[in-house]
Amino acid sequence: MNENIYKRNELLAKKVIKGLESRNMTGYYSADKEDALKKVLELIPEGSSVTMGGSMSANEIGLVEAVKSDKYKFIDRYTAADKHAAELEAYNADFYLASANAITEDGILVNIDGNANRVSAIAYGPKKVIFIVGMNKVCDDIDGAIKRARNVAAPINAQRFGLSTPCTETGSCFNCKSPDTICCQFLITRYSKHEGRIHVVLVNDNLGF
To answer: Which of 119, 102, 115 is nearest to 200 (CA)?
Structure first.
């Protein structure tokens, strides 16, 4: 990564972390993927029950493979005989792993979901939620964050899942009501009611969508 971009991200992360702290959330800055993985695992005691939504960022730093080890009780909705039951079990997990579709410079998290299992678990249920967020997802303000979620994250995910939505053809949001839409539930996390529940690891890299 260019040295100037690296330094800019480091300075910007300090601003985001200060914003998170003002919202009763805890922020961390990791210089690279390896450091991010180390930081997240420091937050999760061995023996903890762990689950997640469909986070590409968690995969990209090697976190999914790490928590599938016998050191943790991993709830895997993809291999479960009853996927819905596994998703419900997530609400009682010790840790929920996620990313954000966007985050503002002052610490507001924005997420869009289709089935709502991810955004509902972020909002309520698991004892702690850990976000892994690349600096590419930081936006100026809430309007910019929502635009990013709708026009960057959503179209790419719709394409990734092979869905038939207008955004898969154009690359931008049409505010559609297609049966295949994944823009069903919007979650804006502006404050955490429970101190110590939400942790955000900012990574000086381009992660996820």
So the answer is: 102
**128 and 94 Cβ atoms separated by less than 8 Å:** yes
User: What pTM was estimated for this model as a whole?
Assistant: 0.96
Band (pLDDT 50/70/90 cuts) for residue 123 is very high
Please tell me the predicted confidence (pLDDT) of residue 141. Answer: 98
pLDDT given at position 2:
82
Q: What is the pLDDT of residues 165-186, one digit of tens each?
A: 999 999 999 999 999 999 999 9
| Contact indicator for 89, 171 with CB cutoff of 8 Å | no
Beta pairing class for 102-104 and 109-113: antiparallel
Residues 66-119: tens digit of each pLDDT: 999 999 999 998 888 899 999 999 999 999 999 999 999 999 999 999 999 999
Structural domains of the chain, ranges and CATH numbers in brackets: 3-203 (3.40.50.10420)
Q: Which two tokens stand for residue 15?
A: 């601003």
- The neighbour count for residue 120, using CB atoms within 10 Å, is 17
